[in-house]
Amino acid sequence: MDRRRFLRAALGGGAVLLAGGGLLASRVRAAASTPVGQPGNVLVEIFDDHGRDLGPREMPRLVLTDAQWQQRLPPASYDIMRRDGTERAFSGEHERPAVAGLFRCRACGTALYDAATEFDSGTGWPSFWQPIAARNVVERSDHLFGMTRTAISCKGCDSHLGHVFDDGPAPTGLRYCMNSVALRFVPRTAA
């Protein structure tokens, strides 16, 4: 079931009630004092704020305790990124910025999407037809709410970003539907 059909079912009264600012029921990823994710190095594609691809680099994955994540992230971002929540549709920022730029992970700064690949999906969440580099995101199977979806997380810190669906535009046919509170837009600077 894709996100649009799920939303229709939710509005029809067949889903979990929204709570705490419109966040869908969140799952706790880890105990309060233990680190989330596994320590170690990850290979990510590095982009500067001009949008130039600086190539792949191995870097340590950002691993923090739950308390450290709560200090690092605003409450809404923490609930989405560390507890696998979803922000309320049409509540976020970043729908089609007026200037060129890229979207970075709010938690660790990894480059995730180029604004040139964003499109209006009509869903109320920022949507992209591809990540800036496939190696910068991780896909995982998500079976929450009795449906199978593909969850997307940041490779640099293992933070939940959103989901990918197969109902997007050409050239990929994909819709990377992201939570805006998981993204930080960086306007492209002159080279």
TrEMBL record:
Q: Which residues form the MsrB domain?
A: 66-188
Provide a GO biological process annotation. Answer: protein repair
Gene Ontology CC:
cytoplasm
Record-linked InterPro entries: Met_Sox_Rdtase_MsrB (IPR028427), Met_Sox_Rdtase_MsrB_dom (IPR002579), Mss4-like_sf (IPR011057), TAT_signal (IPR006311)
Catalysed reaction equations from the record: L-methionyl-[protein] + [thioredoxin]-disulfide + H2O = L-methionyl-(R)-S-oxide-[protein] + [thioredoxin]-dithiol
Carries keyword Oxidoreductase? yes
Enumerate the Pfam families for this protein.
SelR
Protein name (record): peptide-methionine (R)-S-oxide reductase
What species was this sequence derived from? Rhodanobacter spathiphylli B39
| Taxon lineage | Bacteria, Pseudomonadati, Pseudomonadota, Gammaproteobacteria, Lysobacterales
